[in-house]
């Protein structure tokens, strides 16, 4: 029992231990990572403690503010905004900031987050109120950039950096949303009609171009065909002229065989043209070979009479003129007459 008795010496020892612990706890400070602590000397800022172990002067220095140096997020509540074209919208957002100077953030502004929030909300209304609703809905990035630039310039004296400001939602009234939907539908129908008209226009142009090219190619084909036809006729005429000239030269030289050939050729061509005429009904009577030979011989005699002074070429036996006895007329056939170069109709044959 005597060992457990409280003596004045024991009490003094305990008091000294408690005082030592209190003194050490006020002197030794461990700052966590991501934070800066300010130190005040009798209420006046003296220095900033960075992460790690630090020592303070007991009973003179104390910790003032513990500042978070990491990037922080601040929600911007929904607020009503009147646009330049008098449309009312509800908008909200989010702001990101980071403390760069613990002393300025602790002693240059009272209520840092409240100050940042009001600054962002004020500039959000100002920037969005200077824009039309259509620009507001389609240019969120530009709105965020303008607000960020203004807020960052205004808050740099607070020792902070506004890193980002994002617009989360822009909600027009329901009646305005319905009107916008109708307008969008009308615009889409208009664009569809324009695209359809442009498609028809392009198709018509292509068809016209195709018809134009077809007409050009057709005209070129007709031109080439006409040119080739004319060239063929020209060559045929040249050949006929050359043949006629050769026959004329032969006749002039007294060659009766040439004129016989020429007359027989023309005679045959004339019969072919008469037989192929579409507007005539012609019956060609077969002529005896001796009649054709007699005709050619008669022409030869005429040529001899005309060119009597020139030496006549020897006439082949088949082309010599032969006399034909007159056939008695009767029902068996017509009486043979002199050689003719014309056709006979069917009734002349029956009634001759």
TrEMBL record:
It comes from Fulvimarina pelagi HTCC2506. The keyword Glycosyltransferase does not apply. Residues 26-184 form the Band domain. InterPro entries: Band7/mec-2_domain, Band_7, Band_7/SPFH_dom_sf, Stomatin_HflK_fam. The keyword Protease applies. This is Putative membrane protease subunit protein. Its main location: membrane. Keywords: Hydrolase, Protease. One of its GO terms (biological process) is proteolysis.
């Amino acid at each position: 029992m005597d060992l457990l008795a409280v003596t004045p010496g024991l009490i003094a020892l305990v008091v000294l231990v408690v005082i030592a612990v209190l003194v050490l706890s006020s002197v030794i400070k461990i700052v966590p990572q991501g934070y800066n602590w300010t130190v005040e000397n009798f209420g006046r800022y003296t220095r900033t403690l960075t992460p790690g172990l630090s020592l303070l002067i007991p009973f003179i220095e104390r910790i003032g503010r513990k500042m978070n140096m990491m990037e922080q997020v601040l929600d911007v509540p929904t607020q009503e905004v009147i646009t330049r074209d008098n449309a009312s919208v509800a908008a909200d957002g989010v702001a990101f900031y980071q403390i760069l100077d613990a002393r300025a953030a602790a002693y240059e502004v009272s209520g840092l987050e409240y100050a940042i929030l009001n600054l962002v909300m004020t500039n959000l209304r100002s920037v969005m109120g200077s824009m039309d609703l259509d620009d507001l809905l389609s240019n969120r990035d530009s709105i965020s950039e303008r607000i960020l630039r203004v807020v960052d310039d205004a808050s740099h004296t607070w020792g902070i950096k506004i890193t980002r400001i994002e617009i989360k939602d822009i909600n027009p009234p329901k009646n305005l949303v319905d009107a916008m939907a109708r307008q969008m539908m009308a615009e889409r129908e208009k664009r569809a009609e324009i695209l359809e008209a442009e498609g028809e226009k392009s198709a018509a142009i292509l068809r016209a171009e195709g018809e134009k090219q077809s007409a050009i190619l057709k005209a070129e084909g007709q031109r080439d065909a006409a040119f080739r036809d004319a060239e063929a006729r020209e060559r045929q005429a040249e050949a006929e002229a050359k043949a006629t000239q050769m026959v004329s030269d032969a006749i002039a030289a007294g060659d009766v065989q040439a004129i016989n050939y020429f007359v027989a050729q023309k005679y045959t061509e004339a019969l072919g043209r008469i037989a192929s005429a579409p507007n005539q009904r012609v019956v060609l009577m077969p002529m005896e070979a001796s009649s054709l030979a007699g005709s050619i011989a008669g022409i030869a005699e005429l040529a001899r009479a005309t060119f009597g002074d020139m030496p006549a070429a020897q006439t082949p036996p088949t082309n010599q003129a032969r006399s034909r006895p007159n056939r008695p007329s009767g029902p068996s056939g017509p009486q043979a007459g002199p050689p003719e170069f014309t056709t006979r109709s069917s009734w002349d044959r029956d009634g001759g």
